[in-house]
Amino acid sequence: MAIRAVVFDIGGILELSAPEGFDPVDQKWAARWGLEPVELNGRLRDIWARGAIGLITEAEVVAGIAEGTGTSVAEAEGFMSDIWTVYLGTPNAELTAYFEGLHQRYLTGLISNSFVGAREREAALYRYPEMTDDIVYSHECGIAKPDPRIYQLACERLDVRPDEVVYLDDVERCVAGAAAIGMHAVHYSATATAMAEIDALLAAYPGGGRD
């Protein structure tokens, strides 16, 4: 058996967010709208869930936020602008360069529990389509990790078996989901450690999808 493909998660891997995550955004806008953050999240829970698997458009997200918070579309757009800033985070330059380097020899892919609108923003900011063979977004395929179907879909689109794939994710349940279908799953905790673990797997199962 040889490794033919390397697949990464995006958020928390190639894109790094501040430790406090979306909390400051929720606090800012909840206060502005006279709500508690927990109440704001409760009102928007269905919108977030539907947007994550592509059941609503970006325009419907904004309209739903405006309706759910009793505010204007302009206010809802401002809120979403802040959400996207946190969502997109900052680049993990070292790991991104490593991933790009792998693409020279291996098939590469990305799997993301995403939100409607993510592909366009990430393509513009991070150039992912230029550095990988395929990207599976939950909002486009309607399946979210750790559902085994999303990992299987990624394998099908790369034309590889699960045991020919190294997969990297920072969320334990998503790592477990990949391992459950037979991928060589690595749990990300730090960039240097992740690269070392991946390199060890590539050395243990030499191959390459571009041979």
UniProtKB/TrEMBL annotation:
The keyword Hydrolase applies. InterPro entries: ACAD10-like, HAD-like_sf, HAD-SF_hydro_IA, HAD_sf, PGP-like_dom2. Keywords: Hydrolase. GO terms for molecular function: hydrolase activity. This is HAD family hydrolase. It comes from Hamadaea flava. It comes from the Bacteria. The keyword Hydrolase applies.
